[in-house]
Amino acid sequence: MRFDELIDVLKELIRQPSVVGAEHSFFRVLQRLLEERGANVTWYDGVLVAKGNDPRSAHYSAHIDRHGLICTGPNEFQYAAFVAGSRSDLLGNSVSEQLMGKIADRFGSQPVMAYEPWSGAYRGAGTVKHAYKCEFRNNLIFELDGLDHLVAGTPVAFADRLTIENGRFSGQLDNVLTAAVLVHLFRLNFQGTAFFTAQEESGKSWRYLLEWFRRFGNQKAANELIVVDTSPYPDTPTAEAQHVVLRNCDANARFDEATTTRIAELCEKLGYSASFKDEYIEQKNAEANQEGRPPQSLGSTELGRITAASNGLVLGTTLQIPTTGYHTMQETASIESCRAFLALLLENANVRP
Known about the structure:
This protein has 353 residues and is of the alpha+beta class. Helices cover 33% and strands 27% of the residues.
């Protein structure tokens, strides 16, 4: 599967900034890599579409945005996903204090870099000093060293590079990891369609994808879509108890049973273990209920949102790589899981490298 070449793609992409709401420069890098691999690339609002010679043979989608900051005033920086998603009192709905507290502790002393969102031009480097919740705006405010020259609207990415150690990839993998796999598919003679969507972390990516299917999808039958992503687990043994993660549903909708069953059968055929994330969460919620703890949400995915809103136009399932260290700079995935993930995408599309 030319796996070393996939690692090269991942190393290149993980160093390119792609802050949620400021993904344009990353799209430009993707376009070059995809066209070098023979794909026909078209750029729409919020989604880059790469096609082979048989575009309806498979539809895969990965979001390409990652968490970062946005300059909102003189030496003032806020969490970009909250701003892009209009999820603070200043811009719309409030963000839960619990979520803010979790995020605030994740990025202490983290190196950051500012960039021009369209071209990707470098605008300076700095480090995170402190993050706190502003009681007046009900949003996270970051204090940075070294970037007080920036103007409002400038994105600031967490500086990152890929680490490979003990059979695992580590870095800000969500969701550059599966995006890199979709790019690599075209090196392996994939002839279907790959979507790369913006603003998934702010809950907007499914709208861009649905608009594409409304314009260009098969209007006479349901369009099958497989959305790929990472899936968080609390520790390494739990994450590596399976090669890949499937779902029957999320908090928004049930997924297509036939597609989910086919992917599960492909796992069995190729000798890879798979688990269902919704079943895992339901088991944990049953344990929490017995212990008097609050339940965990089933989660909200791009596939669930588009299924719920498309009125049958788009159906499908998810295929995910289990990870630990969710939404940190040390998110970790087993290389063995990544190999299984790539093999399943090839088998599903009947690709013989």
